[in-house]
């Protein structure tokens, strides 16, 4: 029998092998990431593993895929459900991006601490919004929905195996093998010729819409390794002559703890694709949609910490607009130091970030009773705090990544009111609850506090 986490790990590995064959620059990115991680580990020792063991970080990937309809999204959810991955978070990239990015997204990932430690594979999954009149007029919407209704991304055999794996939590070896083959194949780039005129029609609205709704299959858009020093990775990739996007998205490099998520990517590459011209000929052309991304992960912020992060971003925008010749990263660093405490301990004390708490093996062993409050428990060495890693995404960074890889802004009709989508809508469309990432981090923290209370014989340890 192959359990869900083994299926997840195997799927991530095979997807990585497949994507490496399709996009060789990805393999370079993975190699350079591994070198950087080894160097950081050598230089920092155990500190380098504070936010995840080196074996987890080395195997860690997130993928990105894009689908066209709620029906397709429900099917994707079944495939990922088989791998023990659940929809977490709602991202509205239509609002976060300046260019036309007509999608709403969620991320499928394991939610349980043990499952994350076994293999944290996650997939940022976007769904097209043909009902949004800012991007699609009624005629184009109808043609698009009609096109999407006529395609099948996932064969029924794959979905049947997925349902069995999800219900049983495992599959017999032969079925697992078949499931993995079909699942990986569903995300390969199709050799089927692309209808050039239809693709171009959608591309005028948005290159993302064309990538999703202009073809009869789906494909993995990128697969992202995790790196322990993203600034160093950026330098090394540039040295190798790979053209990176202008910036690293997310928090700046600064003297305090790493928080949330920092990401960067290399530019989308022109890939050979067969195109069908309006007169019916098949020619070889090129499309530029897939890129390579890399990320560094930090501590999960609480709702309050996140509000502070969002406010900081707004302040950086504001100052950067007023001081156009100043380096944005410098500006961000200065503002960060003003608004965020620069130690884990202070982040915890101010309730800005999430930690799990553990009774210290070397706690005071005399007969004294432990103090009741968390602050004193920490100060007097009874309890230790371990940072919770941020397992999710950032809408603004995601929009930045989408956008920096578009060569054209696309078009948007500002006279129209956007179609409303939110987390509840998405849950409904999926037939599964879209989980709130903040709730998950909070629950994890609270469970650890309850465990501490039990072990120390205290009634409760308020967080
Ligand atoms: C997804 C872009 C967002 C991330 O890591 O924030 C993303 C896409 O290009 O489909 O992958
Ligand atoms: Ni990504």
Q: How is the topology of this model organized?
A:
Blueprint: E1 2-3, H1 4-22, H2 24-44, H3 54-59, E2 61-67, H4 70-82, E3 86-92, H5 93-96, E4 103-109, H6 113-118, E5 122-128, H7 138-149, H8 156-168, E6 170-171, H9 173-186, E7 194-195, H10 196-205, H11 207-213, E8 222-225, H12 230-239, E9 261-276, E10 282-297, H13 303-322, H14 328-339, H15 344-349, E11 355-359, H16 374-379, E12 383-387, H17 395-404, H18 423-430, H19 437-456
Parallel strand pairs: 2-5, 7-9
Antiparallel strand pairs: 1-6, 2-8, 3-4, 4-5, 9-10, 11-12
Helix pairs in contact: 1-2, 1-9, 2-12, 4-8, 8-9, 10-11, 13-14
Largest sheet: 5 strands, mixed
Count, helices: 19
Count of distinct structural domains: 3
Q: What are the bound molecules? A: 2-oxoadipic acid, nickel (II) ion
- C-alpha Rg, in Å? 23 Å
Low-confidence stretches: none
CATH architecture of the largest domain: Roll
Strand order of the largest sheet: 3-4-5-2-8
Instruction: Tell me the span between the first and last alpha carbons.
Output: 41 Å
Q: Fraction of residues in helices?
A: 40-55%
Structure description:
- The chain is an alpha+beta fold.
- It folds into three domains: 2-300 and 391-432, 2,3-Dihydroxybiphenyl 1,2-Dioxygenase, domain 1; 301-352; 354-387 and 436-463, no CATH class.
- The protein has 19 helices and twelve strands.
- It has helices spanning 4-22, 24-44, 54-59, 70-82, 93-96, 113-118, 138-149, 156-168, 173-186, 196-205, 207-213, 230-239, 303-322, 328-339, 344-349, 374-379, 395-404, 423-430, 437-456, and strands spanning 2-3, 61-67, 86-92, 103-109, 122-128, 170-171, 194-195, 222-225, 261-276, 282-297, 355-359, 383-387.
- The strands form four sheets. Strands 3-4-5-2-8 form a five-stranded mixed β-sheet.
- The two termini are 41 Å apart.
- The structure holds 2-oxoadipic acid and nickel (II) ion.
- The site of 2-oxoadipic acid (OOG) has 12 residues, from strand 2, strand 5 and helix 17.
């Amino acid at each position: 029998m192959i359990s869900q986490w083994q299926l997840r790990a195997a799927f991530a590995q095979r997807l990585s092998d497949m994507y490496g064959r399709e996009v060789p620059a990805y393999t370079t990115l993975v190699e350079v990431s591994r070198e950087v991680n080894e160097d950081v580990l050598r230089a920092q020792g155990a500190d380098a593993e504070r936010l995840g063991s080196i074996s987890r970080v080395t195997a860690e990937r997130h993928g990105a895929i894009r689908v066209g309809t709620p029906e397709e999204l429900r099917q994707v959810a079944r495939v990922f459900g088989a791998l023990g991955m659940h929809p977490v978070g709602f991202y509205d990239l239509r609002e976060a991006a300046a260019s036309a990015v007509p999608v709403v997204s969620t991320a499928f990932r394991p939610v349980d601490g043990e499952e994350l430690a076994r293999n944290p594979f996650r997939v940022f999954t976007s769904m097209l919004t043909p009902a949004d009149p800012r991007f699609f007029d009624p005629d184009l919407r109808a043609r698009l929905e009609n096109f999407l209704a006529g395609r099948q991304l996932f064969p029924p055999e794959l979905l049947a195996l997925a349902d069995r794996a999800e219900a049983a939590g495992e599959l017999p070896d032969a079925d697992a093998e078949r499931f993995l083959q079909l699942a990986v194949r569903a995300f390969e780039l199709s050799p089927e010729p692309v209808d050039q005129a239809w693709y171009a029609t959608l591309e005028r609205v948005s290159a993302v819409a064309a990538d999703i709704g202009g073809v009869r299959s789906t494909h993995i858009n990128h697969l992202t390794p995790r790196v322990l020093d993203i600034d160093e990775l950026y330098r090394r990739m540039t040295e190798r002559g790979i053209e990176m996007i202008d910036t690293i998205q997310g928090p700046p490099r600064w003297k305090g703890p790493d928080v949330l998520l920092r990401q960067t990517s290399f530019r989308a590459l022109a890939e050979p694709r067969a195109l069908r011209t309006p007169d019916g000929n098949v020619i070889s052309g090129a499309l530029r949609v897939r890129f390579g991304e890399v990320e560094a992960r930090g501590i999960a912020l609480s709702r309050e910490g996140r509000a502070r992060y969002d406010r900081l971003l707004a302040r950086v925008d504001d100052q950067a607009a007023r001081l156009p010749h100043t380096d944005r990263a410098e500006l961000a660093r200065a503002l960060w130091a003003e608004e965020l405490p620069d130690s884990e301990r202070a982040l915890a004390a101010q309730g800005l970030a999430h930690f799990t708490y553990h009774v210290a093996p070397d706690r005071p062993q005399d007969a004294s009773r432990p103090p009741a409050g968390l602050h004193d428990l920490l100060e007097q060495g009874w309890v230790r705090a371990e940072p919770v890693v941020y397992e999710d995404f950032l809408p603004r960074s995601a929009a930045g990544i989408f956008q920096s890889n578009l060569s054209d802004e696309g078009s948007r009709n500002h006279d129209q009111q956007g179609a409303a989508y939110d987390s509840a809508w998405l849950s409904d469309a999926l037939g599964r609850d879209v989980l709130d990432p903040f709730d998950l981090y909070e629950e994890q923290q609270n469970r650890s506090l309850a465990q501490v209370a039990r072990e120390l014989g205290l009634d409760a340890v308020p967080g």
